[in-house]
Amino acid sequence: MLYKFYGSEQAVQPAINKEYKGIETPQDLYDALLNVWCEYTCAPRLRGEWSEENITLGQCSITAFLVQDIFGGEVYGILRPGGNYHCFNIVDGVKFDLTSEQFGDEVLDYDNVTEQFREEHFKKLEKKQRYEYLCRELKKEQLNME
Length: 146
Prior knowledge:
The protein is of the alpha+beta class. Helices cover 31% and strands 13% of the residues.
């Protein structure tokens, strides 16, 4: 499969958490999430724009923290107009962003970033609930693949 997300060529770090069977690399996780990302997992402020054609829209923070659970590393954010952060991962010095496709042809600056922490993000109950839903649905997806 030809991956289009930012850093996809280098996103081959091995999973450090074997909780999700069959997910050995970030590319494996991306493949599985294509069947899990949905309007419900999208940030509420973007749900009206979410579609299957732009499946990664509004999925960044919950996806980045799931990546951190499975592969380790840190979550960083790019400050966006309006004051929100777009989250991505750095694992073993490699930057990748499973949800970068939501921006189309826009080129993001992955160098001027701020570390992000789940404790801060999950103060928003809806975000914590979307993250938990994403995790549960991913586990169900893994069971369906067996």
